[in-house]
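agent> step 3/5: call structure_predict on target 'Major Facilitator Superfamily protein' (Micromonospora marina).
agent> reason: downstream docking stage needs a structural representation; sequence fetched in step 2, passing through unchanged.
tool.input:
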Amino acid sequence: MGSLGILTSLYVTQYLGIGFITVGLTAILRDGGTSLDTLALLQVVGLIWPIKFLWAPLLDRYGSRHRGHYRSWLLVLQAALVLTLLALLPFSRPADQLGPVIGVCAAFVFFSATQDIAADAVAVRLLAASERGTGNGIQVAASYLGNLLGGGACVLVYDRFGWAAAIGLLAALTAVGLLVVWQFREPERIDRVVRIGTAYRALVSVFGQPGCRWWTFGVVPLVYVGAGMAYALVTPALVDAGWSLGRIGVVTGVVTSVPAIAAGLVAGLGVGRFGRAGVLVAGGVALALSTVALLPLMNGRAPLAGTVAALCSFLAAYTIANVVLYTVNMDYSRPGSGGTDFTVLSSFGLVCSFVAASIGLAAAERFGYPAVALASLVLVAAGVAVGVTHQRRFPPSGPAIRAAHPRADLLAG
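tool.output (status=ok):
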C-alpha cells in the first residue's frame, strides 16, 4: 500500500469514533432522555484535542528503532482505539450509565488525538512537497467521512440492530487501520533527538522559520475566525427559522458531509496542480459567495432546497480553504519534529475556531446574524489576501521552508 493509502486508513479510522461520539452518541443519548445540559458535558471531552501539543514532543523523542519510530506508537494507539470502543459494549443503555460512558469516550478522544500526532508525523516524513496537498485533502475529507460513518451509518445500525451491533461495526472498521499499520514498514529514522528538553523546544522553535509567524498569527486567525464566526451562526439561525432538531442534525451532520468530502479530495489534487495560493483564492471566493447565499437564512428565511444548497456550498468552500491551511502547516513541519510542529500549528487553528464560535454568537446577539456574516466575509477576504502575499514571498519549494528530508535539522531557523 502506498503512502497516501496508509494515511487514508489512519485518518478515516481516527475520525470514526469521533464522529460517533460527537454526533451518533449524542443522538442516542438524547433519544434516551438525556438533557441538553448533560449532553454538553460529552462535548467537553473534545477539548482534549487542541491541547495534544502538550505531549506531542514525547512521540517525536521516543520510539522503537526496530519496529519503526512512529509505527511503534501507531501499533499501540490503533489497538487502543479498538479496545476503547469495545469497552463501550457493556453499556447497552448509555443514558443510564452516563458517567462511565463519558469516561470511556474521554479515553478514546485522548488515544485518537495522540494517534493523530503520530499519523501527522508519518505524513511529514513520507510526503514530498508536491504530495502534501493531496495528503491533507485526504486528512480533511477523512474527518467528514468519519462523521458520516460514525455519526450516520452507526446510528442507523443502532436503530435497526441495537447497541452491540453499532459498537461492533465501529470497532471492526477502526481495526482496519490496525491491519494497515501492522503491514506498514516505516523508513528508518536517521535523526535522533538526544534530550526531551530539545524535543519540547520544538514547540517554540517552529515559529523561528522564515514566514511561519506571519502565516500562523496572520493568515490562520483571519481565515478560521472569519469562517468560524459564520458557521457558528448556522444552527441557532436554523432553530430560529423553525427547523426541527432532527432535520438540523441530518442536514448539518450527514447531507453536508458528502460535498465536503469531495471538496477535500479535489482541493488536495488542486494544490499540486494550481499551487497553494491558487487554491486558497478559490476557497476564499467560494466562501464569500456561499456566505452571501446564507444571508436569507440569517434574515429568518430558510426554504429547504436553497438552505441545504447554501450550507453544502459553505462547508465545501471551508474545506477547500482548510486543506490549504493544513498543507502550509505541513510545509513548516520539520521531519525531525514533525509530530510536534504540525500539532502545535494545527492546534492554534483549532483554538481560533473555538474563539470564533464564541465571538460570532456574542456579536450576533448584539448586532444580528447578517452583520456578523458580512464581517466574517471581510475577515476571510483579508486572510486570503495576506495568504497569497505570504506564498509569493515564501513558496514551499524555496529556501524559506525546508524540504522533507530525513537529515533535516530538528531546530531549524
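agent> step 4/5: record observation. The chain is about 75% helix and 0% strand.
agent> proceeding.
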